[in-house]
Design the sequence.
């Protein structure tokens, strides 16, 4: 299911960026927009290969930057760095544990905006920084921490819905009677 999984990951990336820009209810309520792309990169790094991670970072970053005030392409490098760092250590990470998913989501959602801000400042762009920026960073990090386990649940549901399970066949039937004789 790797091809279908990659297509679904890219579709969710597109829909997540679209919903973030089209619906501003959470942004109005909390004063910050929750970014789902770092959480999606965490899922892709733990469940897919390097081509899918690269596609999510490039296409997701371009989708996000085209609908935000960021310069086009500035989000690609931080997203890719998160995906690459997790991908290189994926054998050591407990993928199915809620705590590990939450910590990785928190770390990725904290790193991506900070690295993007660093790239903006290094590139000569003048973003407006204040104490509200710290609140927005906190909300984005906490939102990514909560979104990561939800994405794992969503893609596990996709996996169960769109793929079939191989039947395990054994030579033993539960309705078979075994006769044993005394010797």
Sequence:
């Amino acid at each position: 299911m790797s091809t279908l999984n990659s297509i679904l990951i890219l579709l969710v990336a597109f829909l997540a960026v679209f919903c973030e820009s089209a619906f501003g209810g959470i942004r109005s309520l909390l004063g910050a927009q929750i970014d789902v792309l770092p959480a999606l990169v965490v899922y892709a790094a733990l469940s897919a290969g390097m081509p899918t991670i690269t596609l999510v970072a490039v296409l997701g970053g371009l989708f996000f930057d085209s609908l935000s005030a960021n310069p086009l392409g500035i989000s690609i490098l931080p997203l890719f760095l998160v995906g690459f760092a997790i991908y290189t250590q994926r054998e050591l990470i407990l993928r199915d544990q809620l705590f590990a998913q939450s910590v990785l989501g928190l770390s990725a959602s904290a790193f991506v905006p900070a690295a993007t801000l660093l790239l903006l400042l290094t590139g000569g762009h003048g973003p407006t920084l204040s104490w509200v920026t710290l609140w927005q960073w906190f909300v984005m990090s906490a939102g990514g921490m909560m979104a990561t386990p939800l994405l794992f649940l969503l893609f596990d549901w996709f996996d169960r819905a769109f793929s079939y399970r191989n039947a395990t066949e054994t030579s033993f039937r539960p309705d078979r009677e075994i006769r044993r004789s005394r010797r």
